[in-house]
Amino acid sequence: DPVLSAEVGDRKAARFAKSGQLAEAYDELTFAFKLCPDPKVLLNMAKLCTAMERYQEALDAYKSFIDQAQDEATGEHGHGDPEATHFVPARIRNDGDLQADCRRSIT
Q1: Are 37 and 68 contacting, i.e. CB atoms less than 8 angstroms apart?
Q2: Alpha carbon 73 to its chain's center
Q3: How many CB atoms lie within 10 A of CB 95?
Q4: 3-state secondary structure of 54
Q5: By CB count within 10 A, which of 41, 44, 80, 89 is most buried?
Q6: What is the C-alpha separation between 98 and 1, in angstroms, rounded?
Q7: List of residues 6+ apart from 44 with CB closer than 8 A
């Protein structure tokens, strides 16, 4: 069952993250997302990338999260909420180039 396997991967990722093994946690989430593309997994991937200071990857994951979450809410693709950038941490939000890129991609 892909959903169950993805949930197991998500729990393993949480254990890795708690023990400071962020790269391993990210790998588990990547695998879980391939099995079951849940926007919440993307959000967790973005948080891990931010913690690892991989800001461009974090921004990409936040953008994907916003797009997929919005798609689920509206049933339409590409109608991201410009205000949804509140999910993006300040250190990424406050980078003018990254912020502009994020806003362009979700409007």
Answers
A1: yes
A2: 17
A3: 15
A4: coil
A5: 41
A6: 38
A7: 10, 13, 29
